[in-house]
Fold each of these.
Amino acid sequence: MLARMSAPTLHIVHGQPSWSFRSSHVHAHLTKLGGHLGPVAFRLGRRLVSPFAVAPWAEEKLATDTPALLRALRGDFFCAPFGGNGTPWRGEQHPPHGETANSRWHLTAFERALDRITVHAALKTTVRRGHVDKYVTLIDGHAAIYQRHVVSGARGPMPVGHHALIKFPEPDGSGIVTTSRFEHAQVFPGAFESPENRGYQSLQPGATFASLGRVPLADGRHTDVSRFPARRGYEDLVMLTADPKLKFAWNAVTFPREGYVWFALRDPRVLRHTILWISNGGRHYPPWNSRHTGVMGIEDTTSYFHYGLAESARSNALSRCGIPTALVLHLKRPTSVRTIMAVAAIPPGFNRVKQIRATKDGVELVAANGKRASAALETGFLRSE
């Protein structure tokens, strides 16, 4: 049975007008500006964990030319087109990460169906005329967020992605990042940051690698990007291309001292890549001012790194190898993008996630050392209509 409930009212959360909603295991906030989902508190037993980051300047007065994206920056947000979008494409000039991450969303419905609530927000895009519907669902008993974005009324190539920002505890190496198997992995091929612009990077541009545990540095050495925080004073970006044959692709961050894992699931045929934006104080220009530290963007996309629409839609090094870097929107057939982000408690000694597999009631997370954890989840949600 579907019941329409009284819609949540807007109130200020970390400087942004936001809608707040909750289930038995999740308390979430969604900003009107940009549709950023955060902060989010997940209940694990008697405790709450909040893995998503909020920009340190969230409540400051910023320069008038600061993009809306940076004013709201927090949690997770949907990007269409994903990327910087510095280069126009066929007359289209999109803001960084698209109108979906910068424009004002409108709350369309707030509904309860048995054990779940769904927030439905909508946005009309103007740079490329179309419509985007955002559905955020919480299910009682699940420490998880189910998101579905539906793009309709538009056509042509479009890089898309989810831009989750995870805040790591202060000690170096406090979190351990792992992913499902990938076919290709590469450091961003250009200059991600440049000293003349007061930005610094540490990895070797364009380097390929087979393991997150051994990635080339610019000085000829190697580093382990799976352990974070690390490399204080630098910003880096790498991209991993998932095996499309997987039932679902996943990313996970294990926090052994905190006793839990954050993880995200997706269909790799829709969101093929994971971009890791490794942010640890390497930007010394406003509003960053070297204080955005211990944050990793774990961004599931179909894109050509974070360049944007023009570079993702045109022929590029990946698309020439048969690896998709943009979805194709159809005027009469909506495009649906789904993801699940969740947390799970882990037993003492659980070191890093090696495998996430579906079970009858959810998923089982298996550590490299054989220890196991589980989470109630509906993995069937990832299958698009």
Amino acid sequence: MARSQFTLAALVVSAVPDFDPARVTPVATGIDADFESALVTDHTGRAVIVRLPTSRATEQSLTHELRALEILTAGVRSRLGFELPTVCGRAPVGNTFGLVFDLLPGDVIHLDDIMAGTVVPAAIGRAIASIHELPANLVSDAGLSYVSATASQQRARDVVERAAATTMLPDALETRWSRAVVNTKIWQFDPTVIHGSLGVGNFLFGEDSVSAVQGWGALHVGDPALDLMWLTNTDESAEGEAFHSYQQVRLSSADPNIRRRAVLYSELEIAKWLLHGVRERNTEIVEDANQMMESLVATIGEEPVNTVGVGTEPIMTVNDVEQMLDVTPPASQ
């Protein structure tokens, strides 16, 4: 049962010393949509966000984020060009717990705000690159997941094989994806620190730069293309600007095949959506996935099946992506 905004305000009072709530506003958009969340302001004007898990998966995500933010110390944060969440309180609630975060600066953006010729694409590219430039041992030595290039390739292959086993995968996509996941050339990369669940909702923007990045519950070492795949559904020119600024920051660490893997991962999200629908026996989701696959087949047209990520237009429309994000359960590592 959903808790009232007053219950969430009471949680803040118990978690944060000397906090006297004056206003409570439920929040159900962006990353907060996965939790019972509220914006709580006290009489001095201090504002915090309280998040309470709604499932075992979101509880694990919140636990993981707490650990990740402990690893991302002040010294580490100083290497990034934006702010990260700060936990200012924790309180038990029944068999689970809630976390209270200081409100981060900046405004929420949407996919259609990422337009070529503006500061947004380049700023996003630089922000993602700065995450990937962090030392990998910072995360792996702390016991968080390390996913090798070989394991990343195998995970992608597993998705394709399971989707093919449904017999609903169009021949063109089965061929295209099957060839991509066995093409060793595009899977030659060095795992980096990655956010792990990046999307447009994780970014907050200031006047001309990324002011904060939120939602660190999937931090681990893995394929940097995972943090970039969502950009393949933006305007093609804006996507190009974002990738260009990303590569400029990474320089010697630049990966010539990262954009191809990003596109492949984005396409495989449709396969995962299909598998989710099959698993849940939800005919509406299955039909939605089938329509997306038909649209992708039409988009790639005569493109050679071994050139995933080369000249491919956005896989889904802005509305397609945002609707999927509203109802798709958090991805597992």
Amino acid sequence: MMKNVLVIFLLLAISTGINAQTKDSSRIIIPELKLNLNKSGTSYIKGTFLAQTWARYSEFNPGTTIDGTPKSSYGDVGIRRWRIQVFGQLTNRIYFYTQFGQNNFSSLQPRHTGAFLHDAVTELKIVKQLQIGGGLTGWGGVSRFSSPAIANIMGLDAPIYQQATNGVNDQFGRKLSLYLKGEIARLNYRIALSRPMSVKNSVIAIPPISSNSNFNTEAPRAQTSGYLFWQFLDKETTPNPYMSGTYLGKKKLLNVGFGWVQQNQAMWHTTDLGDTSRTSLLLLGVDVFLDLPLGKKGAALNAYVAYNNFNYGKNYVRMLNGMNPANGINSDGTLNGAGVNYPMMGTGNILFAQIGYKLKDDLFAADNGTLMPYLELQYSQFQALKDPSVMFEAGLNWLIHGTHGSKLSLGLQNRPVFENNSLGDAIQTMRKNMLVLQYQIAF
């Protein structure tokens, strides 16, 4: 039933948008919220806003409950993201950036809890090739979308697994850090020294130490991370750490990147003799990003491939998904846990790939924009699982004014469900779906 409702809603939204724009064919352009501090505009203060609302139908993992009530499927509405940014180049050497907002506001949200600080950064330019800064920030590694520019990602979500310690010892990927960044010829680099946040304040429950590795709840050691990429064609502008998902053919890009995250004694587990073994966290990644215009009518190709080798220690695996609409599990539960979670990150190897094709500009009459279909795949071979974890996603973006500023997206995600067999091996036993309709405003 909920699937039919989402499809009908999409058709009605398209029809309403087209009818509304037919009356006035002038293209809608939302102006920048920008205050120039000098005549040239090189010194400025700027503000942005983003909202992403989800309407969703989910097939739940077995044993899922919501407030103790068993549920096999569910429809929900939530605010996936809501953000306000204020930043500025105060002089030719002084820059600041701050971001405030909310993630995952759903019907399970405790009342009167809300937005929080995402970023608070101050930065000094030494020379063109070197800037230094510090604060609560996403500068660092391990891959391109460890710090995604969420306003222009191609899918419903960035590859969240690349935010590899999300909510455990950071604040949705941000850490309290000192960083160096800059551009030398065609090499764009960022290197950060961070003090991870207390694991005891993790957004997920950290279990007591056991024979399988998990995050060490003692005082955290310092962490180093970085990401470097070589730009073969056009160059990207990176005043902030957040990397664009697609430029819709406005740039011609081919980038190859490498990144890492390393922290001593970040993890622990017990040995066969019952002793405590403290081990390092080491996350590595290489990736390729392509964004190309095709022809003269505005069509564009976007593709991204990443390989990551993650070492969290013995048999670590984390079940996760965006804005989980369930909060409990009963005796029929599987290894996935509640709701829509699946094995997203863990010790092992991950291959992620996505591809999208933006159709020509003004595909629809009366300035009603164009379409961009896409496909995604995450293939993971984790130490803790006997079978690979494979997630598929297919979707369609309607770029209502030809940009990400007003975007309606429909995406279907298909995920694996794991259980232990009679030998104690974690194997895939079934697959489940999640259908999401998202509307985004960004300016």
